[in-house]
Amino acid sequence: MVLPLLLLVLPGAACVFSLGVGLWVVCSQLLTADIPAAVGHPLKLWVLHCLLELLMTWGRIFEKLRICSMPEFVRFVHDLQPLKKDPDVRVTDLRYGTIPVRLYQPKASSCTLRRGIVFYHGGGGILGSLNTHHSICCHLSKESDAVLLAVGYRKLPQHKSPVPVRDCLAATIRFLKSLKTYGVDPARVVVCGESAGGAAAAIICQNLVDSPDLPKIRAQILIYPPVQCLDFQSPSYQQNKNIPLLSLSFLFYCLCSYLDISPSWKSTVLKGAHLPAEVWEKYRKWIGVENIPERFKKRGYRWMPREPLNEDAYQEAKFMLDLANSPLLAEDEVVSRLPEACIVSCEYDLLRDHSLLYKKRLEDLRVPVTWHHMEDGFHGVFTTFDMGFLSFPCSSRIMNAVVHFLKGL
User: What string of pLDDT tens digits covers the 409 residues of the chain?
Assistant: First the structure.
């Protein structure tokens, strides 16, 4: 009698629990998420945000039960979606040592060498994979007539900083040494990254400045990249702290996980007490709010004085200053020799000001910059490209801008 009763009760209890989790996610986000009407499709963003939050909530539940980590669960689920095939692009899964990569080659014959693209996906080390950005890579390869290598760098929770960037650098060097094999023009190799992948692209360009034995990178495409881990008080942090798909709380979760910093320092870091006054003064010329155009402060900005140094926080967090985490801080001698850039920023992005600051640094040192600012964009919007109902027109505009830039090289 007990077993049949359990078989009847357990499925019902599981359904009630699942419904409760879903309702909790929706209700909690109703109270905390800020969905701006200017994104054009606020309801669509709300649905996308709730789906992501639901995935991460279930991931945290499984993590508490010690079944798997939250990042692993989320990546497992978002990789279940079957890949779309394009009859005009040949796709090959390879491994560069232990690093999985995916090669995209146009099937049409070419009498000349093609341009090459090395692509790094985003996701803050938590989300994202070769599969989530498959359609983006396929389209980029086809429309720009390029051989594209997507890098499946290792991610959290097992692999923290600097492993992901090292993987990206190793794969890029291997690709640069194999251009003849893939029919790529060594004078037209571009690195391209979205979100955390954009930071990787910037860091790799800096690392390869002094590599005379390798083909020079022709250009860098940085789509809303995070380029500094110092200042969290700029206008975009104040204006967009609760806007999906990257809230301030989720950013800090990613940052603490990636840099292996205790989340208990969040308040200290937000108040600027994690770095000494001389560090702030040294880098003010590059990260100061005066470098951000006034029009980006109109939606609300209040200057906040930094609190006195917390020495313990500084000792634990000072490697935020490493160039592998904050490429914005590279010396002029390096930045002035970087290749031309295409930078995409989004108005409703927590990291918007990162793009503005890096753009200014490059331009001040006479590095050519093509800048596209999406007035209706938000962090992660590019990943909705070819996502059907959940796609945003902004994602197609970013794609068109990137393809146009590539064709001009």
Answer: 444 443 444 566 667 767 777 777 777 777 788 999 999 899 999 999 999 999 999 999 999 999 999 999 999 999 998 999 999 999 999 999 999 999 999 999 889 999 999 999 999 999 999 999 999 999 999 999 999 999 999 999 999 999 999 999 999 999 999 999 999 999 999 999 999 999 999 999 999 999 999 999 999 999 999 999 999 999 999 999 999 999 999 999 999 999 999 999 999 999 999 999 999 999 999 999 999 999 999 999 999 999 999 999 999 989 899 999 999 999 999 999 999 999 999 999 999 999 999 999 999 999 999 999 999 999 999 999 999 999 999 999 999 999 999 999 9
Interatomic CA distance for residues 197 and 171, integer angstroms: 13
Let me know if 129 is a catalytic residue: no
Q: Is the CB of residue 145 less than 8 Å from the CB of residue 95?
A: no
Q: Which two tokens stand for residue 72?
A: 């692993």
Q: Known catalytic residue: 349? A: yes
For 16-137, list the strands marked E by DSSP.
Answer: 89-96, 99-106, 114-120
- Alpha-carbon gap, residue 269 to 93, rounded angstroms: 41
Instruction: Report CA 23 to chain centroid distance, whole Å.
Output: 29
What's this model's pTM, rounded to 2 decimal places?
0.95
* 379 labelled catalytic: yes
Distance, in Å, from the CA atom of 266 to the CA atom of 255, rounded to the nearest integer, reads: 10
Catalytic one among 195, 345, 355, 395? 195
Name the active-site residue from 231, 349, 353, 376. 349
